[in-house]
Design brief:
The complex is a heterodimer. Chain A is an all-alpha fold. Chain A is built from 22 helices and four strands. Chain A has two domains: 19-54 and 349-566, Orthogonal Bundle (MetI-like fold), CATH 1.10.3720; 84-241 and 306-340, Orthogonal Bundle (MetI-like fold). In chain A, a hairpin with a 3-residue loop joins strand 1 (335-337) and strand 2. Helix content of chain B is 24%, strand content 36%. Chain B has helices spanning 47-55, 97-107, 112-125, 141-153, 171-188, 199-205, 223-228, 233-238, 338-341, and strands spanning 7-18, 21-32, 36-40, 62-67, 70-71, 82-85, 159-163, 191-196, 208-213, 216-221, 243-251, 259-263, 266-270, 282-287, 293-296, 305-315, 319-326, 329-336, 349-353, 359-362. Classes of the chains: A mainly alpha, B alpha+beta. Chain A binds chain B through residues 185, 187-188, 190-198, 201, 205-206, 209-210, 288-296, 298-299, 301-302, and chain B through 52, 55, 57-58, 76-78, 82-84, 86-94, 103-104, 107-108, 136-137, 141, 144, 151, 154-155, 168.
Chain lengths: 566, 363
Amino acid sequence: MNEVAEARITRRSRTLWQSIKDFVAARTISTTGILLFLLLATFLLWPLIAVLIKSIAGSEGFTLQHYKNFLTEPYYYQSLINTLILGILTTTVCISVGFIISYITTRGPRFLRKPLKMLSLLPLIAPPYIFALSLIILLGRNGMITKALNLNWNIYGFSGCVIAQTLAFLPLAYLMIENSISTLNPNLEDSAANLGASEGKILRSIIIPLLTPGILKAALIVFVMAISEFGNVAILSGRTPFLAPDIYTIVTGIEMNFNMGSVLSMFLILPCAIIFVIQNYLIKGKGYTTILGKPVAAEPRRINPAILIPFLLVAILVSGLIFVTFGVVGMGTLTNIVGVDNTFTLNHILDWRSNMALVNSLRVSLLSGCFGAIMGVLLAYVIVRGSFRARTALEGIALAGFTLPGTVFGIGYIFAFNRPPLLLTGTMMILVINCMFRFLAVGMEAGINKLNQLSIEVEEASLNLGASTATTFRRIVLPIVFPAFMYGFMYVFMTSMVSLSAVVFLVSPGQNLASVFIFQWANYGYIGLASATTYKLIAIVGASLAIIQALSRWTGLRPTAAGGGV
Amino acid sequence: MNEESRPVLVLREIYKSFGAVKALKDVSTEVRKGELITFLGPSGCGKTTLLRCIGGLTKPDAGDVFLDGERINDLTPDKRGTQMCFQNYALFPHMTVAGNIGYGLQVHKWKKKRIQERVEELLHLVRLDGLGDRPIDKLSGGQQQRVALARALALEPKILLLDEPLSNLDANLRVLMRASLREIQKRVNITTIFVTHDQFEAMSISDRLIVMREGIVEQIGTPHEIYEKPSSEFVASFVGYVNILNGVVRHMGSETEPTVVSTELGDLEVLGSENDIEVNQRVFLIIRPETIQVRPYGEATEINEFKSTVITSMYGGSTIKYTVDIQGKNIVIDQFDPCNVGIFEIGKKVTVVIPQNVHILKK
């Protein structure tokens, strides 16, 4: 056939197809979008609104009395100040150390990179309050070091909280900073060095300014985690007041003062919301796109020892502490009462009481992992490919759910879902829903990154060949976003296994979760049982990760965030 | 020895391996003052590694690098007096144009006023007057390239190292930037090493070329020498298309008398060659497509004339490219000015004239 005629026919059939396709595609995507919006609004916005309402609810109508009580009571005031200082200190140290370690693992001696990276990321598979356990074992009232040195001092109080929170959220800070540092073009540093800049000058004038957006992002996440994930703080605070554990005590204790709990929650949200807004609307768009081409893989620059050696010392000290932590918690697991009665025992491991909680955790985490990842990818697709206006709102709500304090979502869920038609309190379902909605933003961001790399023409080609939007999504889009799906699954699964701050409000007696179980027993002082359960939890998370790795190697589909995510 | 031909840079027996891959094997060469010399070769030939060895970004396993008579192997990049321009420009994205150009001066603690003057001077040199306050990402690719150049020139290095500097530009801009790069280089009279895999770029910009292959220097010479008198089959075909004929020398010629080589096409008469060849020597004949002529079919009676058939013909405006069949051997011919010479259809019989001055290579 004549080529010109052929081309003309193709073009005509294309325009016909185009209009049909556009019609179907627009409706499929926007319907999904509306559905997703309703879900996000119900499970992320409504709980927050419920907390707000509770904080101003009086016996008759609305009142500001609870806020007045908060502001006139020095205890609460002190609690707020302490929380802010804790957040700021933890964030500062976490970010600095995270930066130093990522500098070493991307630019330091090659043989140290892998082991340092592994050690720094190790705490991710353990509950964050593993550090509270190890600090009690070492420096508690009967701690090994306390007793050996006959100290009058112990770890309970402000300093203990800062140390534990710093070590707990260091992996997160490290992961995010390493992610952005590894996208820096190494030739920038080569150029600066070639022009005579010293190591310090390169750090100050090139690396740190370029990393600032990434560092601020990491700082926000760490700050929120530090003030809201209160496992460590509740165990170690002693008599020092902090907002998050206070909310827990007020809401679940004898007082059951929901109104005051909500006021405290509002003050916990406030700093986070301020940073969230600054980060998303003031700094956004300030990121520097690397200009042209990919960084050329080349021999690493030799780092000046004046910088390298102090950096190395910090990195080794911190990873040493992490190593020691896992060691002493291991000792706690295998001895009667570590530090007091060091006889070897398997009793803690064989203790049946933790098994039910572990099984529940696994069940909840698997479900929330699957649903969270599916929804994350769907959200990503709708956000990238949809054309309706609420797209940015969708992304914003999902990110807010991820960024705002878990504690608030804990009590928010109690208020929001305790009566029909949304009666969920006391069920296993509420745990699954809470975990999946709070953490799905990670998979969503990874999906957005992946989809932005996939050109729309590939999808159009599929639609052109006669496939429906749904088929296109299943056959073309899914395989491409699958790594993002896996990444989202892994994140939701792991975080659901170990996180505490929200689910601690939602578990009911028959359905305890492992993280809550450990927290409760550690709080009562049963270090052995808490340690053993921690190790079982680590083993389950570790084994699951290994299975996913093996699966992904087998299928050739690796979970990736495609340079983004957290 | 005059100033112009004095070697500034001497490389002696450089070796470099990356694991099992031998990137450089016994590379020795000299670079003369003020010249623009190009390292040319396919990717993986070691040209960038060699450049990085000179710039101090890669440490050679063995061998010496001398700059102005001083051994610089152990000096860090900033102490060498070399300045590297990267393929991706490596401009600091958070600084303005002036901030980038003045970075090295600021590091060397120049006074603010002097920095400003020097930056103005450099902006003028690279024709970016008035753009000092622009952010980097508001520049076109060609402008970014010139900022990178100005930044590298700011500290007046002894040698400028350019790693595929034009490869990120589109085709038209490349040609323009090539000319402007050469012009700036001449004006500043800076010794420059240029790395590229593009033979046209290399030939049009360089004083001399170093053709490399698998870590070895294949040939050093002016673009003219490399093109006309390649030292190997590889060099011959890397710097442009060639017809290669296998032959045996039948009769040795002299100043006045042509040498006779018998080839797949038949006997060819070939004029003067410096190669030390002898009778019965097996040789390659290197024949560039544009040196061969096509004529309307007629009796092929003259020397080096052959009867043939056109197999393919590709019209390209200023030239037309034919493939013709001579005795079962395919020969590629570039005919200039096809409008006036006439176009031969596929299948048509033609007469082909092989020139007498072809390059002979010993086998």
